[in-house]
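Please review the protein record below. Let me know how this chain folds according to its tokens.
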Amino acid sequence: MRREVSLEEISDGRLYELNDMVKADCHDCEGCCDCCQGMGDSVLLDPYDVYRLTQKTGKSFNELINDKIEINIVDGIMLPNMRMNPDTNACGFLLSDNRCAIHDARPGVCRMFPLGRYWEDDTHFKYILQKGQCNKDNLFKIKVKKWIDTPDLKRNEKYILEWHDFVIELQEQLMKMTDESYSKKINLFVLQSFFVEPYDMQTDFYIQFENRLAKTKTVIRQLQKGQK
């Protein structure tokens, strides 16, 4: 998930923080939907994305698989992503009027667009305005935190750091493994623990995530010992 590119290659060259103004406001898109088509498997989902999707749709992860989302290998790790409609090459949640059926629960990647995260190192990130991504003219300035529109954003950023750190560490661990059967076991357990197993919608997501993260790290350590 690491990408070796310069800031100037992918953005306007600036780094933004939550209270900074950025030229990203497209007036609620007005049904433009250019960014909802032809995305391939690039809209990766994290556990909070899946939590919000299942809450919004009332469907389980397994019910959404192969319809609205799919699973691919990303740098050696099984991760879900939004699935494009094979007939239209558009997001499966795009309605006939070119509006988003899950707009208030849209994934983090969609929520930020045309912003993105720029990782200064494995424990710090800021936001960037991605170059040439939004085709809409006359974008207006808006505060980064208002555009991202995520409740309890500081807490969410802490969670993003933890998830990013876990994925990077897992990638490094899997690369060192010589027995593919153990790699598969770990991948399937991670998928089950963070995505397939339903979340309790009456309980704080971040508490559930912390518990699952601690349990998953313990299981991975046990599996690693079993390989030796």
